[in-house]
């Protein structure tokens, strides 16, 4: 619960207890005046629902308007007060509080409030009075806002939940919430559909990438096999050529060696014979 709201409920509690002893319309009317004039009392629904205060509805014309006044303090605005005849005259404190509560209602439906609009809605005489009212509301914790004196507007950031619900407003609130819920469901359904599309596209892209990788690996394997076969063929042809030349060469070499050996032997014999049968030397 908001701290300002809790403070307001605590401030109202004593008046709720006093309502039990308000045995006459005059006492009930006086209690309304006291509650709406007291500091920190900004919610009034609990007091409004008490039997003694509700009895003012059937009271005389002198006191019955006090019930209407309390209802305006609960959920109405300054324009409701000025447009309703025969209401009790407000004190300065009551007038300031009702204008503050009206400012809450206006801020709840507008993030930005112009000075011109507020001066008219709150029936204030000048800008200085308006700025003082806004500043007092901020210090009281009723709202969070900034005064833009250059643009002459009030920028509201947040509002305390201090206004009571008007009778028969719950069905309208439920309708608004149902509409909001329907739009949220529609947005979530659309987001889920987009997520499914993204996942599906990602899976399809991954599948194509895997197929491309497989085709690339297969093509690289086929190229490697072809290159290996081509190199093997070249080595086979080269070995065949080199092998034939070597055998012929070897054979020629052996023939030469053998011929040389036989010739050397014969020459050796001939030479020896010639030396033996040569001229004699006389010693």
Distance between the termini: 157 Å
Taking strands numbered 1, 2, ... along the chain, how are they ordered across the largest sheet?
A: 1-3-2
Helix proportion range? over 70%
Percentage of β-strand residues: 5-15%
Main beta sheet: strand number and arrangement?
3 strands, antiparallel
**Element-level helix/strand string:** HHHHHHHEHHEEH
Number of helices: 10
Question: What keyword list fits this structure?
Answer:
3-stranded antiparallel beta sheet, mainly alpha, single chain, elongated, 283 residues, 6% strand, 10 helices
Describe this structure as you would to a colleague.
The model is unreliable at 245-261 and 263-283 (pLDDT under 50). By secondary structure, this protein is mainly α. It has ten helices and three strands; from the N terminus they run H-H-H-H-H-H-H-E-H-H-E-E-H. A three-stranded antiparallel sheet has the order 1-3-2. The chain is elongated.
Summarize this entry quickly.
The protein is mainly alpha-helical.
Please specify the SSE layout and strand pairing.
Layout lengths: L2 H16 L6 H13 L7 H4 L2 H4 L9 H12 L2 H6 L8 H18 L2 E3 H7 L5 H13 L3 E6 L4 E7 L10 H107 L7
Antiparallel strand pairs: 1-3, 2-3
């Amino acid at each position: 619960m908001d701290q300002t709201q809790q403070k307001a409920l605590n401030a109202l509690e004593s008046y709720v207890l006093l309502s039990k002893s308000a045995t006459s319309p005059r006492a009930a009317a006086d209690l309304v005046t006291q509650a709406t004039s007291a500091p920190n009392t900004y919610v009034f629904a609990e007091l409004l629902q008490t039997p003694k205060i509700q009895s003012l509805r059937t009271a005389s014309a002198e006191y019955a308007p006090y019930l209407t006044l309390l209802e305006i303090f609960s959920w109405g605005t300054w324009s409701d007060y000025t447009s309703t005849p025969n209401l009790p005259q407000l004190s300065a404190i009551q007038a300031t509080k009702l204008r503050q509560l009206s400012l809450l209602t206006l801020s709840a439906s507008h993030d930005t409030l112009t000075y011109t609009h507020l001066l008219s809605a709150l029936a204030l005489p000048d800008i200085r009075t308006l700025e003082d009212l806004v500043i007092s509301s901020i210090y009281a914790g009723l709202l969070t806002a900034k005064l833009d004196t250059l643009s002459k507007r009030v920028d509201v950031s947040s509002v305390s939940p201090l206004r009571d619900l008007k009778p028969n407003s719950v069905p309208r609130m439920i309708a608004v919430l149902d509409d909001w819920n329907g739009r949220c469901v529609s947005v979530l359904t659309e987001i889920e559909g987009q997520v499914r599309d993204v996942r599906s596209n990602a899976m399809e892209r991954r599948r194509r990438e895997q197929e491309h990788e497989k085709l690339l690996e297969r093509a690289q394997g086929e190229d490697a096999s072809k290159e290996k076969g081509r190199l093997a063929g070249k080595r086979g042809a080269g070995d065949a050529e080199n092998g034939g030349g070597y055998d012929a060469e070897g054979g020629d070499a052996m023939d030469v060696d053998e011929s040389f050996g036989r010739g050397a032997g014969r020459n050796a014999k001939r030479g020896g014979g010639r030396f033996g049968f040569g001229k004699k030397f006389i010693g």
